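Page 47, continued from p. 46.
Same chain as before, 477 aa.
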Amino acid sequence: MNASFAADALVKLQDKSVLVIGDVMLDRFIDGSVSRISPEAPVPVLEKSRETEMPGGAANVATNLASLGCEARLVAVTGADAQGHRIAGLLGANMAIDFHQVIDPDRPTTTKTRFRADGQQVLRFDEEVTDPISAPIRQQLIDTFSAALNQADLVIISDYAKGCVPPDLIAEITTATRAAGKMVVVDPKLTDFSAYAGASLLTPNLSEFRKTGTLEGDTLENIAAAASGLATSHGMDAILVTLSARGMLLARADGSWHHAPAQAREVFDVSGAGDTVIAMLAAALAGGVEMEQAVTLANMAASVVVGKSGTAIASPGEIILMAGTPTPPTDWDHCASICEDWRKSNEKIGFANGCFDLLHPGHIHLLQQAAGQCDRLVVGLNSDDSVRRLKGESRPTQPAERRAAALQALPFVDAVAVFGEDTPLELVTAIQPDYIFKGGDYRPEDVIGREVVTARGGDVIIISTLGSHSSTSLIGS
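Result:
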């Protein structure tokens, strides 16, 4: 997959609505260092330095969907405890997630606490009840799901076997979703795949797939044959088996199959990688991408998150760059020259600028809206030194060459020019755009370069900010 195709697919999924139902949990991380062994027992002593909390399970799937640009609707059960309130608070801070919380006062919220020494996990402590939800809570859950289904483009069932989606409820959700003419993608934990009959796509890992007892041998051909057989017998369209270092294998019910090899990447932490896979798959399918291409995108997204620490997410820009995007020309002379050619053709030139450190849905929204109001869009990109002066020594997370490559891959960006000054005034003067586009709460009269464009009879246009997306929050995750 080339970068332009990846970027186009990621643009198409913006604002698609995906409904997630399943087991949510709170992921806690206790970080520290080990420098001694306990005198009480031969175990290391972890000296705590930091504690963080993240939405986990189905909540992490919703967070991943939001980071890609989808509208995520999450239906799930929590306890009436502090952990349930904490999950609601974490999700509520993201304007792209609509959390329909069903509270069960008799059930604790599933919590996983991971202890890490110098970044490496040494112990996990789980607090949970895995019994199926009670009949009254089940009815609340299905009523909430049914009310949300009409507005969804696709449904994800995120089954972590914690009791929120028992087999009879899975069957009811699947039947209702398919009857509504929509796809249902399932992340399974049960060994009997008949519980997921009728699903559009199932996404087990190899260990989960082996437990079905249908796999003989370990070759790709063996896996494909077994997966196709199960898909056929259970009325599924396809099964995607994730194979860790061997990548992913998609097997359709008709016997055809597609293998996406793993992309070379140093693995740091696999926590939540499966959530990223199903979120990227579902988002791409909701955006109209063919299943094989959706698998490739999911493979690239997984490669991004396993190189991060904790329950991580992947931004659109990071996924685009996994496609091996070439660095475009970013010098001013080149940009000024092509702008002059566009002017000779009576094309109106728009300009937007920023650091674009980890390209996210808010950036895509701004640039797409800007491109819709001009014939050609030029992006002014802060150089690395300029970003450091504005954001601090830890930024940018990506060099200008990679930030420019991700921007240029977008179907509505026509040119990228890097500037090293604190403001883009000199660049604006050099390329003479007809419009300047800014996001957020800027006032037109305060925008740098306004005098340049108004002297040409142009204008400054303010575009509303999208939700709560930010590079800072992505870097923190």
